[in-house]
Amino acid sequence: MAGHSLGAAVALTYAAEFPDDVEGLLLLGPIAFPEFRPIEHSYLAPRAVAVAGPAWAASASVTSDLAFWPAVSRLMFAPQQPPPAWDAAYPTSRVMRTEATVSEGEDAAALMLSAARAASRYDRVTAPVTVLYGDRDKVADPSRHAVRIPSRIPHARLHGLEGIGHMVHHAAPQAVAAALREMTGR
Predict the structure, then answer these.
(1) Into how many domains does the chain fold?
(2) What is the CATH number of the domain that holds 172?
(3) What pTM was computed for the model?
(4) For 35, 83, 152, 165, which has the most beta carbons within 10 A of its beta carbon?
């Protein structure tokens, strides 16, 4: 099982709850522990508030979200640039729909409590765990997330990638493929 960013927390949570179902975990640029996240908590979470949240989301999805998006995509890839093919294929119009940003807000609002609950169970993970992270990640600070995973899962193996940001799978696909091959024995 593989997970990137918040998807890594989902993969870890699943592996902790259903250890017999998971043969291995590959975590890429993981967000794994609770923390205040300014964009998620200040900009997205208010969209989860009944009535006012969706109304604000509807306005933001056609104004500030579109203006803010280029900066967010650059931040996700920094210090690398978003690949032109990714930029061309990314479904920005679908992601910016009101319903989608309200869902993002609901996830953001639940993030602190759910991350704390999940992290308290990481010691139940029995599968081999490989963590790949970029040492220049500006989205999931490695010192707060990736490098802390072995404190909860002692058998986890860390692989920091020099000069790489949050989008490990785009910036270092060979490292991701090698980790998958090692994990699966192929």
Answers:
(1) 1
(2) 3.40.50.1820
(3) 0.92
(4) 165
Q: Where are the alpha helices (DSSP H) in the chain?
A: 6-17, 38, 52-60, 64-77, 84-89, 92-95, 98-119, 149-152, 168-171, 173-184
H-run or E-run covering 26: strand 25-28
* Six-digit token string for 125: 């993970």
Q: Write out the residue range of the structural domain in which residue 84 sits.
A: 2-184
Q: Is 1 helix (H, G, I), strand (E, B) or coil?
A: coil
Model pLDDT for residues 135-177, shown as the tens digit of each residue: 999 999 999 999 999 999 999 999 999 999 999 999 999 999 9
How many H-runs (helices) and E-runs (strands) does the chain carry? 10, 4
Look-up: residue for tokens 């043969």?
A: 23
Nearest to 12 by CA among 174, 162, 140, 171: 140
- Rounded CA-CA distance 37/39 in Å is 6
